[in-house]
Amino acid sequence: MRSRPSDFSDLPGWARDDHAAAMAAFLVSAERMARRRYTTKALGTDAEALAEIAARALDTGRDNWRDPALCRHFFETCFEPRRVVGEPSAAGTEGGEFDGFVTGYFEPEIEASPTRSRDFPVPILRRPPDLVEIDDASRPSDLAPHFFFARRTASGLEEYPDRAAIEAGALDPLELELFWCRSRIDLFFVQIQGSARLRLPDGLIRRISYDGKSGHPFTAIGRVLIERGAIDPATVSMQSIRAWLEAHPEEAGQVMQLNRSYIFFQQIDHPAPDMGPPDMGPPDMGPPDMGPLAAAGVFLTPRRSLAVDHRLHTFGSPVFIATRDPLPGEAEPFRQLMIAQDTGSAIIGPARGDLFMGSGPSAGIAAGAIRHAARFTLLLPRPYQG
Questions:
Q1: Considering the chain, what is the average pLDDT of its residues?
Q2: 278 pLDDT exceeds 60?
Q3: Long-range contacts of 230-235 (CB under 8 A, 24+ apart)
């Protein structure tokens, strides 16, 4: 990692940020760390030191963290900023002050059914029992280094079927169907986001969340369509990509299959893992004002949760994101303290992130248009002075 020491006074927008809102998101991760710490990742955010800071925040009590000035003092006292210097290609530029890159994601809502029918022919699959997570130590020599999931067989680990094979029925004998949706395009964008609210025919709402993937590399089909001249690069967005797919049904399947990565889901209709003891209350989808369950085992907070490269960033770490340009519909550049709580197939590198924008159509419109150069500053734990 390339980085350099920084100072809070050097962070554009730091003084104007709502540090109480950032603290609320940090406390969500703090509660998770109180039950089980995260693991230290390559960027150097020590998980043990982070958990100790999180414990001090919890000991103070939630009601005491409503004062933004007090929250700002806590972050400035407990952490030291270190500016991440991304690779020149991270933002499609030659580097500079904003040499990182952020996109946006959200929790979509689609129509679905618990049973297959003519209106709902496309399965949403749960995680297969033979899908296992691997690392550099356990990866077979004949498996490419970008694979972090594999198929467990009697003869050892092997590459899992990709999107094309799964859509052709490779996993049908396993009967993995959680729900059924209207189209492969619906499912494709749910997989891109990693979660969804499902609106069932009887009016009930169910929530699904990421639960593993095939392990194949993510391919951005928007880039493919730009290279083919099908979409104007100046106006590309999630909405324009979807519009093209829906207008070209005969080509859409082949284009989507170029993204070989396939995502599996779990139904979240109970208290989420690591959110509390089994007797914490009746089953639900999680707090109504929170987002979906993230890879870090916490519910996401709109505009405060950040998806990062989980091989590099320690979950629960504060990261200050400063964009050069405003987000869609806003007048000022986005400059806020975020908490690393999620990951994604397309999020690769130390200065690459995905901003969680919330749930529903309006969040989707905003998220789909975010492709912004950004500055990443990690907040690393300071030695505790007692």
A1: 89
A2: no
A3: none
Q: Sign (positive/negative) of CA torsion 62, 63, 66, 70?
A: negative
Alpha helices (H) in the chain, listed in sequence order: 19-35, 47-60, 68-78, 163-167, 184-193, 221-227, 238-247, 249-257, 361-368
Question: Residue 153's beta-bridge partner residues?
Answer: 156
Question: Which is it for the CA torsion 172, 174, 180, 186, positive or negative?
Answer: negative
Residue with tokens 């007797």, as numbered in its chain: 279
- For the cut 70, the answer to whether the pLDDT of residue 7 exceeds it is yes
Host domain of residue 355: 3-106+297-381
User: Looking at the structure, do residues 121 and 262 belong to the same domain, yes or no?
Assistant: yes
Within a domain: 291? no
Whether residue 250 lies inside any domain: the answer is yes
pLDDT at residue 11, as a whole number: 95
82-100 core/surface letters (b: 16 or more CB in 10 A; e: else): bbbbbeeebbeeeeeebbb
Nearest in space to 79 (alpha carbons), one of 28, 35, 14, 13: 14
Question: What are 61-113's pLDDT values in tens digits?
Answer: 888 899 999 999 999 999 999 999 855 544 444 445 788 999 999 999 999 99
Distance CA 234, CA 282 (A): 48
Q: Are residues 65 and 187 in the same domain?
A: no
